[in-house]
């Protein structure tokens, strides 16, 4: 049976889904590490203390003195677990926040199974990084400010990716039909966008801003931004 570590970003998860989510996670193995991260001095996180007591979670408190301070602490702990608890086979990350993309990639690179859990659908590039992403139904209304923050972050992420795609395309050499060769385009694509997809092949398959046609060079494609996103 596999050994599992559960890491919860309390500031990005609706507490209402926890009972159902933990039940679903039994299929992945025996839970060895259970931690919840957040600034528990905040009124909206007080109920997490009851969850911690009920399921014997370790609470990792961190004052929100800087932006994403709890996210950073969770990521550091996850990498520490990777090296200090080599018996852990599976990491279950409770968050729809794509800021954890680099962490998920690092864990997968080390041949670990990584399961995502959330109540708000993540963007496609983030979801694709996980072996599985479980979208858990919730029975209570999600606070509007939580939804707004996630949507705002998703919008900024998408705009940045589109800008990176257009910049790489403009710098690339084009053929008579306006297509750029895959290798040339790849050399100009920003590192942060490449990392978000893990592999460039994943970028080609999942990026919503590009059109592809087969190149004469076997295994490669020609690339052009979709007309809706690019004006010549």
What do you see in this structure?
- With 232 residues, this protein is α/β, with parallel strands linked by helices.
- The chain has two domains: 140 residues, 5'-nuclease (Rossmann fold, 3-Layer(aba) Sandwich); 84 residues.
- Helices cover 41% and strands 20% of the residues.
- It has nine helices and nine strands.
- It has a six-stranded parallel beta sheet, with helices on both faces.
- Strand 5, helix 5 and strand 6 form a beta-alpha-beta unit.
- Helix 6 packs across helix 7 and helix 8 packs across helix 9.
- The relative contact order is 0.12.
- This is NYN domain-containing protein.
- InterPro entries: NYN.
- It holds the Pfam family NYN.
- One of its GO terms (molecular function) is RNA nuclease activity.
Strand proportion, as a percent range, falls in 15-25%
SS elements, strand count: 9
Give the ordered list of helices and strands. Answer: EHEHEHEHEHEHEHHHEE
Overall residue-averaged pLDDT value? 83
Instruction: Note poorly predicted spans.
Output: 140-144
* Lateral arrangement of strands in the main beta sheet: 3-2-1-4-5-6
**CATH-level-4 superfamily name of the largest domain:** 5'-nuclease
Count of helices? 9
Q: Regarding CATH, which class of the largest domain?
A: Alpha Beta
Radius of gyration: 20 Å
Pfam families: NYN
GO molecular function: RNA nuclease activity
Domain NYN: 3-121
Protein name: NYN domain-containing protein
